[in-house]
């Protein structure tokens, strides 16, 4: 039990699930589950100004839909709760006071004006801002007095100004920084809540987290976290900082571009399993050519030591390909279910057999959002250009197209049993009778029934789905159009 791996996903309720956050959640989940460990959910809501309504639901829903099931968390409880930081306020204060006792932290009463001045000075000198330890010198009595007067304060970490602090990261290796570069960061804010910088250390320790998985943007703060662990005398967890996810060589994937959140991707017609699979490969690979993984497959294959440190580029072309692969593999009924909202945008006729349409579509799609433009002609014959009847390779002309359509119309009219097989036999009989190549009959029919250059399925499939009446109607429209073109 002592060595059980425990990881956590610790999102801030921002109102959306950034792809980078989802990857962190996935990697944390995989690291735990690969070793039969525990995966915790902790809500980091200490930045009260940034609270967003409905943000928690997005977090819960994302974990649920992706199958990243947590073993402990605010909604299901667990032995080391509460799992929401705002409910742990007193815990942080208590631990911060312990550090004050040890001289590892101190009360700071500096006003905003004074801090602004320090900041302006640092800017003028082109130096990074660092608090000047002004309040570290306050005596116990002075502090008592200020507290008694109700002066606003924060509690800061008291970092040494000499020497070095080193930390180890599984992905980035050993990193050393001069202590003179460590800012005395705020641990407890003036509203009494902790900063992320403090809360993450206290919580990860109290929740027995063995592997801290998070984005590389926290790397530069890790020395300060180590100093906190050391000040408390706590074991330092294993750090797994994940590489940034880039839109291209120079730009990080960002919410502003509208393509960085899980919800955006689902709305664009990606399947959740495909997205999760793709995200797993953003910065990790199994060491062989395999790319398609179920969640269970990932659990088995995932070795976090194979995470790369170089930035991962979010490659939409690859994601699209992968999505197409997932779409192809879906059982047809399941595909129809997922496609339904897209079908509904353009198809209203009850007579259309959606599963039949799905069978034609599934192999030709990368994104569900492509569906409406591919199937809209089933609802209504679009306006189309008469030139579409002219196909060079099929050797079609207006004249032979007209002959084919008239022949098909006559035969279809007397066809009693409207099935795919019968439609096909009828067309092939016509080919034989007219002594032409297949294309001379099939191309004009497909054009007449769809009004489109590219369609899922060919003449037989489309006619079958449209039904007899609608097919005849469309053939007649084609015949009229061709006659008109010939007589011009
Ligand atoms: N609350 C932090 C965030 O959402 C989590 C960082 C961490 O995983 O430690 O970025």
Automatic annotation (TrEMBL):
Xref: CDD domains: GluRS_core
Motif ('HIGH' region) on chain: 11-21
Domain of life: Bacteria
Signal peptide residues on this chain, from the entry's feature table: none
Sequence positions that bind ATP: 255
Domain Aminoacyl-tRNA synthetase class I anticodon-binding: 334-479
Swiss-Prot/TrEMBL keywords: Aminoacyl-tRNA synthetase, ATP-binding, Cytoplasm, Ligase, Nucleotide-binding, Protein biosynthesis
Chain positions of motif 'KMSKS' region: 252-256
Reaction catalyzed: tRNA(Glu) + L-glutamate + ATP = L-glutamyl-tRNA(Glu) + AMP + diphosphate
Domain Glutamyl/glutaminyl-tRNA synthetase class Ib catalytic: 4-321
One MF annotation (Gene Ontology) recorded for this entry: ligase activity
Family, similarity comment: Belongs to the class-I aminoacyl-tRNA synthetase family. Glutamate--tRNA ligase type 1 subfamily.
Function: Catalyzes the attachment of glutamate to tRNA(Glu) in a two-step reaction: glutamate is first activated by ATP to form Glu-AMP and then transferred to the acceptor end of tRNA(Glu).
Subunit-structure text: Monomer.
Protein name: Glutamate--tRNA ligase
Protein source organism: Clostridium oceanicum
Lineage of the organism: Bacteria, Bacillati, Bacillota, Clostridia, Eubacteriales
Name of the gene: gltX
């Amino acid at each position: 039990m002592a060595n059980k791996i425990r990881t956590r996903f610790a999102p801030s309720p921002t109102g959306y699930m950034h792809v980078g956050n989802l990857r962190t959640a996935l990697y944390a989940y995989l690291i735990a589950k690969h070793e039969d460990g525990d995966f915790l959910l902790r809500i980091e809501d200490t930045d009260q100004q940034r609270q967003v309504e409905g943000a928690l639901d997005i977090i819960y829903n994302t974990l649920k839909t992706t199958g990243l099931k947590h073993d402990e968390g605010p909604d299901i409880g667990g032995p080391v709760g509460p799992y929401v930081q705002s409910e742990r306020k007193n815990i942080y204060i208590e631990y911060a006071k312990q550090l004050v006792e040890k001289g590892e932290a101190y009360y700071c009463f500096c006003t905003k004006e004074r801090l602004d001045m320090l900041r302006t000075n640092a800017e003028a000198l082109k130096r990074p801002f660092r608090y000047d330890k002004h309040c570290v010198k306050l005596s116990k009595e002075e502090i008592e007095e200020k507290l008694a007067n109700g002066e606003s304060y924060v509690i800061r970490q008291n970092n040494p100004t000499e020497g070095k602090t080193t930390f180890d990261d599984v992905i980035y290796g050993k990193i050393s920084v001069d202590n003179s570069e460590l800012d005395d960061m705020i641990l407890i804010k003036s509203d009494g809540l902790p900063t992320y910088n403090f809360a993450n250390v206290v919580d990860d320790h109290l929740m027995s987290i063995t592997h801290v998985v998070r984005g590389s943007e926290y790397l530069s703060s890790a020395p300060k976290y180590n100093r906190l662990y050391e000040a408390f005398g706590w074991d330092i967890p294993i750090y797994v900082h994940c590489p940034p996810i880039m839109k291209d060589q120079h730009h990080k994937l960002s919410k502003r571009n509208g393509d960085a959140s899980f919800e955006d991707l689902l709305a664009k017609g990606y399947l959740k399993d495909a997205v999760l699979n793709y995200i797993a490969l953003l910065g990790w690979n199994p060491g062989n050519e395999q790319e398609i993984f179920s969640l269970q497959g990932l659990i088995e294959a995932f070795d976090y030591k194979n995470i790369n440190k170089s930035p991962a580029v979010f490659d939409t072309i690859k994601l699209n390909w992968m999505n197409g692969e997932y779409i192809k593999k879906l059982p047809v009924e399941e595909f129809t279910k997922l496609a339904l909202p897209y079908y509904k945008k353009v198809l209203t006729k009850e007579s259309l057999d959606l599963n039949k349409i799905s069978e034609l579509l599934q192999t030709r799609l990368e994104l569900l959002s492509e569906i409406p433009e591919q199937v809209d002609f089933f609802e209504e014959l679009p306006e189309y250009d008469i030139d579409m009847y002219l196909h060079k390779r099929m050797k079609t002309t207006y004249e032979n197209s007209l002959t084919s359509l008239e022949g098909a119309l006559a035969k279809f009219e007397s066809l009693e049993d409207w099935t795919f097989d019968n439609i096909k036999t009828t067309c092939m009989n016509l080919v034989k009778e007219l002594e032409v190549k297949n294309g001379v009959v099939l191309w004009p029919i497909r054009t007449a029934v769809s009004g489109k250059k590219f369609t899922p399925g060919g003449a037989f499939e489309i006619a079958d789905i449209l039904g007899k009446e609608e097919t005849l109607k469309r053939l007649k429209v084609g015949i009229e159009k061709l006659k008109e073109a010939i007589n011009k």
